[in-house]
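Worked example

This section walks through a single chain of length 272. The input is the sequence exactly as stored; nothing has been trimmed or padded.
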Amino acid sequence: MNKLIKTIVRLAAFTSLFILIFIIAYILFKGIPHLNPALFKWEYTSDNVSLLPSLITTILTIILTLIIAVPLGIFTALYLIEYADKDGRLVQLIRITTETLAGIPSIIYGLFGMLFFVIRLNFQYSLLSGSLTMSIMILPLIIRTTEEALLTVPNSLRKASLGLGAGKLRTIFKIILPGALPGILSGVILSIGRVMGETAALIYTLGTASKVPTGLLSSGRTLAVHMYLLSTEGLHVNEAYATGVVLVLIILLVNGLSIYLSNRLWKGEFYE
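Given that input, the structure is written out below as tokens.
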């Protein structure tokens, strides 16, 4: 039985690895031959179908989304783990709410963002509307991963810090958060991946303008939306594959950077 279970586990692992490698290799094979300098021109036209405006819009959307969602998610997790009554009704309500938000389809977020941010608040199709919508989408993920990271910090460190005279707030910012930082970073990286890969919610809130946003109330399109629109039009499928290559490479770069930073954090190099 042990050999059978071990075989099944290894087979599942190798199958997942094969699927991942196959998808990445297929996108690279189809897209790399169509990468050319015209795709990186500043202005988008129907001839060059440049992806540079979409790349800049993607970066701006990620930055603004993280600025809104990360502090809110981390402080919420701190309240749930460090301050709130574990069996209280408010804590149970917050957990049920976050779990419900995590299971809502992205198209529902898009419709909500369009009705509330775009129409009700009159933010229009803009970078602000898209970022606010994405902040709500990734908030449950950040809260959950931050909670798990905080729980990995031993209680003995909390008690030792408090016993030496440090206050609750000082213990949180000097002991607990640094110890949980690798796990929090993992949640942030997962959130970045979700923002980069989202299309439905951003089409209804950020819009599909093919230019670089000039302000918070300016419209644009992310790389995922850009690739989706090119593929659905049917006129620039090759350029859509090339956009996919750039998107995959950015995701791999971000994940690699996160692994490097996490390893350094676990070794304590940032605390010296």
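What to look for: The chain is about 75% helix and 0% strand.
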